[in-house]
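Write out this protein's structure.
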Amino acid sequence: MRTSFLLVVLVAMSALPACATAVSNDEPPSTTGGSGGQGGTTDPDSSTGGSGGAKQDASKDSTAEPAPDAVAESATDVAQDPAAEALTEAGIDSGTDAVADAVDAGVDAPVDTGVDSPIDVGVDAPVDTGVDAPIDVGVDAAVDTGVDSPIDTGMDVGTDAQDAEAGTVADETCPGEPIVLTGTGSNPRVGSVSSTTNTKNNDYTGNGVCGTASGKDAVYSFTPDVDGIALVDLTTTNFDAEIYVRTTCTTASSQIGCADSQGSSGTERVKFWATAGTTYWVFVDSYTSTSKGAFQLDVSVTPASAHEKCPGEAVTWTGSGTQDRTATLVGNTSALWNDATGNSCGSTSTPEAVYAFTADVDGILKLKVTPQGWDVAMYVRSNCSTASSQLACKDTGGSGGAENAQFWAAQGSVWYVFVDGALSGAAGAYTLEATLSPQKPDETCPGEPVVWTGSGTDPRTFTDTDDTSLHWSDTNGSGCGGTSARDTVYAVTADVDGIMTLSVAPTGWDAAMYIRTACTTSSSEIACKDVVGSGQVESHTFWATAGATYYAFVDGYTASSQGPYTFNATLVPAAADEKCPGENLTFSGSPPAANATGNTNDNWNDYTGSCTTGASEDVVYHVIAPQAGTMKVTATPATGFDVAVYVRQGTCTGTQVGCKDALGSGSAEVLNVTATAGTDYYIFVDGYQGASGAYTLNVQF
């Protein structure tokens, strides 16, 4: 068609000079000559020169392009041609111009109307420019504008559609067709697309994990703006589909998940952890090379919750001051991802939640997780992402059973608590409860200060009740008690010299008690009492010096020995006869004599005579000899104990001048000393091998 048209045009152009000559023979030329239209001939009818091909195409253009050419020709002819020339014009148009018009009418009209639009786009444009333009400059432009535009629009759309079917659509090959995800804030990001693999090619295969995936395929991409769990669902009804996901579109080894388990219909799902800003490529494929069909692809990315990954969800406490801090958290691990594993318990493949508890005070942190019908595991770390920092791992409760853990938490420390599954597939709803009990004064050194009741010469007393199970194991006795039993400590300061007695009465458990003069120094221990069994009182009595502080620890016999108890402390101020320089005795009468009564049970073992053995409580008296001579000292026990008596001269620690313990229990001991007038003598009433009791002392000259 295009070759024929070109030949016709060339033939028409070669005929134009002959036609021009014929016109000149019919009518003399203008005296001035035409200017000659572009690409046309000189018009003899015009007094100023022809307008070019416009007049020449009157007949042609009236037929082929009636609207524009008729207006242009009519306006020109009327203005330039006298009435007398009408017949000649008619002859020229019908006789000569008709040849050219016949060429235009026979070819040009169908080219412009029926075919010219695709020819203008592909090939005809240079032909029109090179040849047609000189002929149709004045008119054809209007014709092209009026007709060509709708033809180009219609044809071009058809051509594009054909190209799409040929395999140039976005989902045919990498980089794939993007799926736009919608959703903001904590709402899931979702997107979907429906298409068919019928018109696709086999461009890709999976990495073999889920099958060969050798059928026709389509590829899509999505880029989430949040971290979270991505679910990619492929639903088909009439072919065995396979789906796989990559992090690099053209690299099979970057595959992170695939699915092919539903047969010829159903939904295949790939679930994976998606990172914000990362692009994932989803391939819709089929199990066999002949399997193909329509599909629906749905993508959702659920934004990660605060307890999904480290550093975990920061827990806000309820409670302040001396109140317990409490927190209750409810969740479900089924909606989470598997990010961590306990290093001594729990499954390696189950999803878990993690919470961060910060201690705002020193105290005991108690944790309890209760699952709803599944086997839970709980582990605790001091560093969220470091498994070796694990402090405990609890998995003893079985399905539906609670797991518990307790720790001593220092102020400012952070505890990362993981709620995980104990076995593969174990996941579900749970409740996590936490309590932080602020440290009590008796928790650890320097201990709870004892506030005495009593003053002057009255005994001092103190009583406190507590429960070691509410405390932590901070200290161990060097001579008794369990190495990891929970304990408390009291700081007991003597405001006077005296005899101090400390005791602990446990309720139903085996307690131990030890006493130190320096709270954190085990070598300063002066006593450790663990001599009786469960529920029995442990007690220790000793001499306390005014101003000294003694640290009493209530502990357990074994690691599991713990519970409620009562702690008692008493301080009996020292009597004058307790220690040197002793109680002064005044002589009276003639011969001079002095008397005293007392009970060594109320005193401490401070001294020992040369005639006594064993540690016995004692008293000391001071006398000044009123005269020279024999001083007779008689100690008579009021109860049946074995009394002893000895005398020192000059100072309380001076030279012993006599010691008497010759008789047995209940008998009086008599000691005669040669005294010098005005000399100081110190008389000691003691016992034999730990004996003590009431007595009467008589001194006379």
